[in-house]
């Protein structure tokens, strides 16, 4: 098995609201960012990977969390705005 897991099977979950991020800042802005990918390990932990780090060295692969400010932040679309095809 390769590590980290392929990007083709990201965990699905709802987009947190600003209030939810403020109440539970586990990963901060990343939890609402289109560039975040959650990477589980075999011990049950889940890490927040920044996909921008693949192409832009300004971004760390695993940023220190919670991320409170980020120039690369782009909000994920709300579930009703997502393309049903993917
Ligand atoms: S671009 Fe910024 S906010 Fe988005 S996942 Fe990367 S570090 Fe987090």
Characterization of this structure:
By secondary structure, the chain is largely without helices or strands. It has a domain at about 25-70. The protein is about 5% helix and about 10% strand. It is built from one helix and two strands, in the order αββ. It has a two-stranded antiparallel sheet with strand order 1-2. The chain is globular and about 30 Å long. The site of iron/sulfur cluster has 13 residues, from loops.
- Calculate Rg over CA atoms: 13 Å
Mean pLDDT: 78
The biggest beta sheet, please? 2 strands, antiparallel
N-to-C SSE string, H for helix and E for strand: HEE
- Class of secondary structure makeup: little secondary structure
- What is the terminal-to-terminal distance? 25 Å
As laid out across the biggest beta sheet, the strand order is 1-2
- Beta content: 5-15%
Globally, the shape reads: globular
SSE blueprint:
Elements: H1 18-23, E1 36-40, E2 46-50
Antiparallel strand pairs: 1-2
This protein binds iron/sulfur cluster.
